[in-house]
Amino acid sequence: MYKRFTLDELKTVQNTFISNFYGILKKEHCMMAIDLFKKIFKEGNEIYYMYRGDFTFRFQKNNSEYVLMDEKEKIQVVLNEQDTREFQWMVKNFILKKEKITWQKTIEQILLDEFHTGKYSTLWWKNYMVYDIETDTNIENLKETKFLLAYAMYPTTGNKMTYEYVDQEWLQDFVKKMLDFDGYIVGFNSIAFDNIVSVYNVGGNDDDIQKLHDKSIDLFLFVRAMTGKRLWLNKIAEALVNVSKTLTSWAEWEILYKKYIEEHDLDALEEFKKYCKNDVRMTMLIFLYFMHFKKIFIEGDEITFTLEDLQHQSRQAAKETGRMVWQNMFE
Q1: Residue (of 248, 277, 295, 312) closest to 133 by Cα position
Q2: At 69, is the pLDDT very low, low, confident or very high (cuts 50, 70, 90)?
Q3: Half-sphere exposure of residue 143, counting CA atoms within 13 Å on the CB side?
Q4: Is the pLDDT of residue 23 over 80?
Q5: Residue boundaries of the structural domains of the chain
Q6: CATH number of the domain at 111-321, out of 3.90.660.20, 3.40.50.2300, 3.40.640.10, 3.30.420.10?
Q7: Mean pLDDT of the chain
Q8: Does 331 score more than 60 pLDDT?
Q9: Is the pTM here over 0.70, yes or no?
């Protein structure tokens, strides 16, 4: 999954695309972008660059267009003839250090700035909340999966984001709050996991689960419906909003879990809370990204959608799929 930027977006969004491109330019001993294109496309229409086994940059030529893909930034730029000339000036200005880039904003800053104006404080004039839960390692039987903790995020007065911590004692009230909530409940794989586990842990029934499902916007199901692929939170967040999980592997998660459960390690508890809160933040930023850009780009295809699709597609996918099998969150 990539962010497809126009040259104007490339100028205003903080990134290292030009810098990374310049690295290829130096490697190939070329002065201008067009010189590089002429050189690398002599023997083919698709060129890859790698460093220590990882792809760093990819170039394609489609008739008169050049397609540039920065594998580090997950940014794609398509250049027609006029764009190619403008891109050359951008690279030249970068080389001459005449163009200051300190004013550029990160994707996260752009999204949050718009949020703070009130533009995304509601969805179709309804409130929404974003939440994520942490559980024990028994995930084969969701009726027996034990809830540990959760975080929820709400847009509040003054267009602020308010985070709420939920422990085991507060879960009963929190589930009731979600059931009574007159708005949308946003999560990632929440229809297959978070909603079910939360309700079962307070003695709720399938009617309660369905009530949560009916007001849920599940971004995992939405992306799967739009792309046909099972893409997980970390991969989507890294590609679209440049944020990552605070834990990098399932093994790291299990070690932390054992310290918390078996040794009552309070530092481990704080790491769990930090991890869960960050997952909510990642989910929220992806949600804002979808509301702002209304498009995603994957494997050569640009997929556009409306705000209505955010709810409709996730609910439709849930009906067609039924209960899904939860997978490793670090995939």
Answers
A1: 277
A2: very high
A3: 4
A4: yes
A5: 3-104, 111-321
A6: 3.30.420.10
A7: 89
A8: no
A9: yes
Using pLDDT thresholds of 50, 70 and 90, give the confidence band for residue 166.
very high
Q: How far apart are the first and last CA of the chain?
A: 15
Average pLDDT, stretch 270-283? 95
Pairing of strands 127-135, 183-187: parallel
Paired strand residues for 149: 134
Range from 112-126, 168-182, 316-330 that averages highest in pLDDT? 168-182
